[in-house]
Each structure stands twice: as structure tokens, then as C-alpha cells.
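Inverse folding, one chain.
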């Protein structure tokens, strides 16, 4: 959740017109400064951390923007109110397409026993979000007070009880479903109906529905709504009007888009924007 709202800026390009990524160094490679360590980072658009692994767990949460975590065979994406949990020794790479402010909570292996054994997105409760925001504003250093150590342990305790949500916007390598998802990601405003999408994939509507439920854990309609939420967040941070965002995402009216956004996030687009700006 919210940190200083990330504002849109021009995306750097090379002379050939290819997007230039900002490659950031991995903060810890040998050892952690303490068994539980918190750090936050503001990242420019098109930034990335290289492929790496470490013997401690890591929980990644975005105060603004959307962080993506790529594993060997999975792609995790978690906008508010979700964070991404990575158990120890999981090779991964982090990136963001738009400006983002995120935090990482690093947890030594001996403190990870009650946390999920597989990578997943975790639902961030209002209490956990408030704790992370407090740590962002008052990051504990070393030496550390007893109160700071207790607070960090409370955060870990909250993670152990958080609901696992898989990936907020899962992907698939299914030969029928993957091209459909890729087309929708390239154009979230795509107005084709389910039967039309099924025809484009040379399959039946029923088969496409079954593949979506099996591969994504949700209906294709919900996946499309989540895609629109993910695409809307950086546009809201950039100051675009709700009406223009709704039209860009293929909604016939702002009211329909607002209802969808509130259903999925618990906030209207303007409430989401104000919350980010107020921080």
C-alpha cells in the first residue's frame, strides 16, 4: 500500500526505440543485518532487480504501483491489497513497468516455519498495511530497541495468518488460453465477447471457460476485470481522470468502471488516488 504517490514520467528509450531498464543492485547477497529486516525503495519506471536467490524469505509489498516477481516457471503480480511471499532459496527476479514504491521484509529461515512453503500472493489486512506503512515512515535500524524488535515480530505473525491468494493476475502457458490472455493484456479495452474470444482461439466457449478456471483459478471475466484494475492504478497515480481511464479500458461509462474498481479493491478510483496522495 500507500506511499508518496508515484507520478508518471517519460519512459527512457534507447536510440533504437527500445525501452531502457534501470538495473538495480540486489541489497543483500551474503547475510542479513538482522534476522528480520525491513527496507523500502522508490523505483523509477522500467526498473528491475537481477535474477537471484537467498537463504532467507522475502515478503514484497507495493505502497504504490505494481511490483512483478518472475520465477523460473511462474509470474506473480500483486497490486494493493496483496503482497508476494517468497520462501528461502527461491530464485526470482523483480521488476516494475511503472514508477513504484515498495518494501521488502526479509525473514531468516528459522522464522519462516509458519509461513507458506511455496511462493504466493498474500492478502494484506488493514492492520498489516498500517504496520508496513509505519515501518516505511520509521524504518528500524541497528542497534534496535526492544519495541522495534517486537513490532517486526508482529508483522511476521500477521503474515503467518494472511490468506494465500495465489497470484492476483495469474498467467498460463496453456496453448489455447495463453494467446487469449496475451491479446487481452496487449489491449485491455478489447470488447470481444467470450464466444468471439473462443473462436479466435479455435475452441469452444465451454472449453475456454474450463481452461480459464483450471489455469487461473477464476473466470475469464474476473481475470479481465483484474487486468483493468492493474492497468488503472498507475494511470490514477499519474493524475488521469477517472472518465478517461474508463474509456481507455473499454468501459462505456465511468460509473460502470467505478463500480467494478470498488468491487475488486474496496475503494473507488478517487478514494484510491486520494489515499495515495495523502501519504
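Residues assigned per position:
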Amino acid at each position: 500500500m500507500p506511499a508518496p504517490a508515484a507520478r508518471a514520467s517519460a519512459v527512457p528509450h534507447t536510440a533504437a526505440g527500445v525501452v531502457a531498464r534501470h538495473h538495480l543492485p540486489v541489497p543483500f547477497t551474503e547475510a542479513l543485518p538482522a534476522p528480520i529486516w525491513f527496507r523500502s525503495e522508490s523505483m523509477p519506471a522500467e526498473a528491475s532487480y537481477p535474477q537471484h536467490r537467498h537463504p532467507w524469505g522475502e515478503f514484497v509489498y507495493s505502497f504504490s504501483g505494481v511490483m512483478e516477481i518472475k520465477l523460473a516457471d511462474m509470474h506473480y503480480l500483486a497490486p494493493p491489497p496483496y503482497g508476494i511471499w517468497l520462501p528461502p532459496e527461491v530464485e526470482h527476479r523483480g521488476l516494475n513497468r511503472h514508477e513504484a514504491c515498495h518494501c521488502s521484509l526479509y525473514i531468516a529461515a528459522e522464522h519462516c516455519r509458519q509461513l507458506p512453503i511455496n511462493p504466493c500472493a498474500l492478502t494484506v489486512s488493514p492492520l498489516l498495511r498500517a504496520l508496513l506503512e509505519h515501518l516505511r515512515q520509521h524504518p528500524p535500524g541497528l542497534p534496535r530497541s526492544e519495541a522495534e524488535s517486537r513490532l517486526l515480530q508482529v508483522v511476521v505473525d500477521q503474515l503467518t495468518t494472511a490468506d494465500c491468494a495465489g497470484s492476483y493476475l495469474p498467467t498460463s502457458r496453456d496453448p489455447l488460453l495463453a494467446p487469449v490472455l496475451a491479446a487481452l493484456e496487449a489491449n485491455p479495452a478489447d470488447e470481444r465477447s467470450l464466444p468471439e474470444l473462443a473462436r479466435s482461439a479455435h475452441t469452444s466457449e465451454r472449453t475456454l471457460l474450463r481452461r480459464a478456471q483450471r489455469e487461473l483459478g477464476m473466470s475469464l471475466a474476473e481475470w479481465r476485470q483484474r487486468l483493468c484494475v492493474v492497468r488503472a492504478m498507475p494511470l490514477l497515480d499519474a493524475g488521469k481522470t477517472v472518465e478517461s481511464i474508463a474509456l481507455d479500458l473499454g468501459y462505456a461509462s465511468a460509473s460502470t468502471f467505478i463500480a467494478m474498481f470498488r468491487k475488486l479493491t474496496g475503494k473507488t478510483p478517487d478514494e484510491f488516488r486520494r489515499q495515495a496522495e495523502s501519504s
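The chain is about 35% helix and 20% strand. Residues 1-19 have pLDDT under 50 and may be disordered.
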